[in-house]
Amino acid sequence: MCTYYEVPGREQLVLHFGDLPEEEWRDKMSPLYRGPFLRAAGAGRRLVVGQWGMIPPNSETSVPRGKDGKRLATVNARREGIAKSWTYGGPWRRGQRCIIPAQLYVEPYWKDKVHTAWQFARADGEPWGLAGLWSEWTDPATGEVLPSYTMVTQVCDAHPLLKLMHRPDEKRPPHMQDKRTVVPLEKGDWDAWLHGTIEQAEALIQLPPVELFVHGPKEPNAKHTALSGFPS
Q1: Which candidate, 82, 144, 94, places its Cα nearest to that of 74?
Q2: What are the structural domain ranges in the chain?
Q3: Which ranges of the chain does DSSP label H, i.e. alpha helix?
Q4: Which of 45, 130, 204, 230 has its CA 20 to 30 A from that of 187?
């Protein structure tokens, strides 16, 4: 699951995603920070700002908690259980899908029993448009309406690169590791994700080709450089 990504710069946001929202956001995103996301607006689309970490319905606090009051991790939504999820089911059935702008995202590469932060950017230099869901929560104390969002994730056990991320489960065979990754959407599919039917949206949840990536160990302020091979 992805718990860190970086928002594209302002010029990139305007160029690829539209007019900037008035609210402030964080450029380096971690759970419960506020970031921009693209959602449908009538027949068009609009960038808005919300909390990364979807707030469950009827929650008494903006910090996601379950019906039993325990803290929930809601920055990632497993596509297999979205429709029946207490947190994600309503937004999914109502078509509240969104696109999350990311210049890069980070996953933990597991080697020699050590996690290395591994960053993924697009080889063409453009920002990612990652599939997500959004919702709105009203603070019962103040009446403030707070948008929130989550990234959709999919199994990547069969992907030659992405399957190398995350610690392997020694009790599971290689084809049943349940490794997870985000869902990149190409620009030509954005309107289908935002405005299409559930069936059309489900058809867009696909593993990306290896050629789409430029990747490597994450270093502060480092440029993305393509690797000649995969991590080993």
Answers
A1: 82
A2: 5-103+123-155+179-213
A3: 10-17, 89-93, 190-195, 198-203
A4: 230
